Amino acid sequence: MRHFRQVLAFLLLALLFLGACGSGNTPAAEETAAPFAAGAAVRTQGARMSDEPQAAGTSTEAQSVKPQGMVYYTYFDTVSYVYSYAGDPAEQFEDRSAEVSTILLEYHQLFDIYHEYSGITNLCTVNKNAGGEPLKVDRKLIDFLLCAREMYELTDGEMNVMLGAVLRLWHDCREAATENPRNASIPEETALRAAGAHTGIELLEIDEENGTVRIADPEASIDVGALGKGYATERAAEYLESVGAEGYVLNIGGNIRCIGDRPDGSGWRTAIRDPNEDAEDYACRIRIRDTACVTSGVYERYFTVKGQRYHHIIDRDTLFPADYYASLTVVTRDSALADALSTALFCMPVEQGMILANSIGGVEVLWIFPDGTQQSTPGFADLIEEKI
Ligand code: ADP
Ligand code: MG
Fold it and tell me: Which of 35, 48, 104, 205 is deepest in the core (most CB within 10 A)?
């Protein structure tokens, strides 16, 4: 049975690489992966990054790079991959990969809003305690929430982790629709508006000195879906950098973070999925190194009511799914910033997003509109290596 699972997992892995690696995993892939979510780690030798199968145009040297890979199914309800192209001794790779896994597990538990874990005060506990006394939490959670507040300010509130009350209504409808598609419905407007009155960022009280957190309003709650994965990915990348790792790629549920470059200096080729087509079709391919790449798309999580699709990125002004784009990709070094921006830019017109991206610096963005047309920051063109 175990062997069968490993073979299946490897096939899934190969499929992912041939498909939309780097553009967010396809929902189908995530569903296929779910049955293995028993804390399994699968080791893959000679695993392939997305560009390996397309040998044409890659140098012999590049083709001779044989990565080692590790797959984890346990974190953030998604699939996580750790690859090394550096030819590390197996033991060193395993140690580093295990440490990445430990870091992801810790953040997964701290950020979980649906489950509590013994001995840990996590965001589920913080949400349950909304309106109550300040709660003592791990310094890691304080730092994360400070980052969330910073991202709120940077994005003028478009990425707001205090949108929990609104997001829960959409989440519940999506879950109900998955269970029973015939009776699918969207949240009542009055309920959305009522929930929208409990989403102020000032309701999140962080006391750095005493190490406590409190939500000031019993109706308010935190949802970190827009930032948590990217933040945890960055902490894992930070660890790898601290031990001098190079030539590593993390793919944490579609949040790609490259540590250093491929040993041959050619960068990693990543396909950005065509959001209007099947998962195998891509809009363009880019080459990345020493950076993060995050895509948010309407195809990632959605449900359908009367032929209309409702996806998972909610515009705080309308309290409905944002409808400017079909997908949006952010390339910038810090994976937490990339994740926050991928959600925030999704909720603003391209002109405004362009100004924001340019004002931060070192941020490249590709906007793909519902009609398939594209726009990008000037520097994004330098990353593109192949367009269709
Ligand atoms: P993923 O990569 O998981 O598809 P995104 O980075 O695109 O996610 O963020 C979407 C998730 O963020 C949603 O599932 C929801 O939990 C949360 N979210 C949706 N809209 C917003 C928003 N405007 N601000 C903050 N969080 C949001
Ligand atoms: Mg995001």
Answer: 104
